[in-house]
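During the no-cost extension, the postdoctoral fellow (Dr. R.K.) reprocessed legacy sequence entries with the updated structure-token encoder. One reprocessed record is reproduced below for audit purposes.
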Amino acid sequence: MVEVYLCRHGETEWTLSGQHTSSTDIPLTSKGRQQAHSLGVRLKGIAFSKVYSSPMKRALETCKVAGFQPTIEPLAVEWNYGDYEGLDHAQIVKQNPKWDLFTQGSPGGESPQEIGARADHLIETILRQSGPIALFSHGHFLRVFAARWAGLKPEQAQIFILSVASVSILGYERAHRAVKLWNDTSFM
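Re-encoded structure tokens follow.
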């Protein structure tokens, strides 16, 4: 059976400022590169059958600094924030006081159903494989991926908090897909 190691990218200037980052292609900070190196140490010795990465610079750089040469996976890009790209939560709620990404999505961006469908397509691809697989991606996408893996609605992904440069593991409990480890940053 397959096991999926979810690896969130390291720190960027926008993760520090809380700005929503989907299509803006920004690099890691020097601390983010250090986090990526620590992530590689944490994953050392695992014989991944496949390593996937979002094509965005921050995920790809994390993957490569961690010591892997990935297959680029366009489905693993971050939730498209549309009109809210580059804004932080406080700026968004000034425009839309009741805004909730997980239930409303973003105007000009993706809905929860659209990102859920994207995660489902990637899960289908991964389920056709075996052994451990690494997926380097982004916070909101990985949260939805985990929710869909566990059979939850995309809206329920809000219960999964995910730190930068963290590792989470999805696998099985008997025949049921399950979360085996979540948001591990203890190696940093």
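The first helix runs from residue 13 to 17. The mean pLDDT is 97. The remaining legacy entries will be reprocessed before the final report is submitted.
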